[in-house]
Specification:
The chain is mainly alpha-helical. It is 52% helix and 3% strand. It contains 16 helices and three strands. The protein has a three-stranded antiparallel β-sheet with strand order 1-2-3.
Length: 415
């Protein structure tokens, strides 16, 4: 299929018109497209091809790494060419989030294994968040095998597992390695059960990573006031971000559940919020506190762009679609903490999870029992809640409950 770069640009421009972009955005895309068109002409071609696009981006990336091109120009070129590529391949465009440059895909000879693993995770009933983490670590392990020239998963040995762990340590924070090791252990155990590896390789995985021995962050009342006061609620973005922050601070919602919150999840008559948690797959129903409800109404009436989307929180710029990923919530909260001057020392936890921790500590200080705290936070594993005991020394002895006595479901007993 032959199509000139100029014709493809015109088709893509037309396809983008319904999105209602600002003139400045359109001008930037036109600028990037023309530079790409000139690149092709300089090489004696006016015909679009994926090879030409890849060559152009690779050269531009090298120029950026050499300091000859600013990051904004490289990022703009990636987005502009991604839109051209969509139009060329499918005849339509979508404003999708681009993955990080150079992020490796699953090696082709491992795709079938990963697909079967994903299917078994779903069939076993793991929550969406757990599935995502397990699949990510499994994919990274398979990519590591490929880089080390291990031809198949069946050829993996204990030394390969041992070699992957320090490699993963260069990607993840020390406090995350416990989760990484647990996910790796699960994948290797599955691979042994399905005979994808000839023997169980889990013995090469340490039994624990960096255990959480540090104090869980607690926000003082003054810090909470500074945090909430950092939002400019006279602007649409400020109203949206204020509501997002309150959902994490007052209700302890995870980032994924905030991003995927629907208007239908809000019962205004009963004053409740009810969501199926992405991480656990369990339904969480919690009171819709007055300040949270008021912030959502304020955003819906005076900050939210016109849209038929059932999702509550939308992008502030066209196209007005739901927020792309959980990291959007992290950036909202982390930016507010920076403006308020809260927890800015190296190694301090930031983002919505820090707000969940603070909520748990407030409940604990109010002598709320651990089962109730676990219910409020939507913990599937009651033992998870014990980490919050480190937040309140004054009530620590009183809250030393026997978690074995807490009722659990049949699913929770499943190994």
């Amino acid at each position: 299929m032959h199509r000139s770069v100029s014709d493809l640009i015109a088709e893509t421009r037309t396809a983008l018109e319904p999105f209602g972009y600002r003139p400045s955005t359109t001008w930037q895309l036109e600028y990037a497209w023309r530079l790409f068109e000139a690149y092709g002409v300089a090489r004696g071609t006016t015909t679009f091809s994926t090879g030409l696009a890849a060559e152009y981006l690779q050269e531009l990336r090298q120029q950026y790494e050499d300091g000859a091109v600013k990051m904004w120009r490289f990022k703009l070129a990636r987005k502009a060419l991604a839109l051209l590529m969509q139009q060329w391949e499918t005849g339509e465009v979508q404003w999708n989030h681009l993955p990080a440059w150079g992020r490796a895909d699953t090696p082709p000879h491992h795709v079938a294994v990963l697909a079967r693993y994903a299917g078994d995770l779903t069939a076993t009933g793991y929550g969406r968040g757990t599935q995502d983490v397990y699949l990510l670590v499994a994919r990274q392990f398979l990519q590591y095998l490929d880089r080390e020239q291990v031809p198949t998963l069946a050829a993996a040995a204990l030394k390969d597992v041992s070699g992957f762990i320090p490699a993963a340590g260069t990607i993840y924070q020390p406090t995350s390695m416990r989760t990484v090791l647990s996910a790796l252990r699960h994948f290797l155990r599955w691979a042994a059960e399905t005979r994808d590896v000839p023997r169980d390789l889990t013995s090469a995985v340490p039994r624990s990573g960096s255990r959480k021995t540090e104090m869980v962050p607690v926000f003082s009342g003054t810090e909470e006031q500074r945090l909430l006061g950092s939002f400019d609620r006279a602007t649409p973005i400020g109203r949206r971000d204020y509501a997002i922050c309150l959902l994490a601070l007052r209700l302890g919602l995870r980032a994924g559940d905030i991003v995927r919150l629907h208007w239908a999840d809000l019962d205004w008559r009963r004053q409740t919020l009810s969501v199926v948690q992405e991480k656990t797959g369990r339904r969480l129903t919690t009171p819709l506190l007055a300040d949270v409800g008021n912030a959502l109404i304020d955003y819906g009436l005076r900050g939210r762009p016109p849209s038929d989307s059932p999702v509550v929180f939308l992008r502030s710029q066209a196209p007005h679609r739901p927020l792309a990923c959980d990291s959007a919530v992290y950036h909202v909260v982390a930016a507010a903490m920076a403006r308020a001057g809260i927890r800015q020392a190296p190694g301090d936890r930031r983002g919505p999870h820090a707000l969940r921790h603070s909520l748990a500590s407030r409940l604990l200080a109010a002598e709320t029992s651990l089962p109730v705290i676990a219910s409020v936070l939507g913990h599937g594993d009651k033992e998870t809640t014990t980490v919050y005991l480190s937040t309140d020394v004054d009530h620590l002895r009183a809250c030393a409950l026997d978690l074995a006595a807490i009722p659990v479901t049949r699913e929770e007993l499943r190994p």
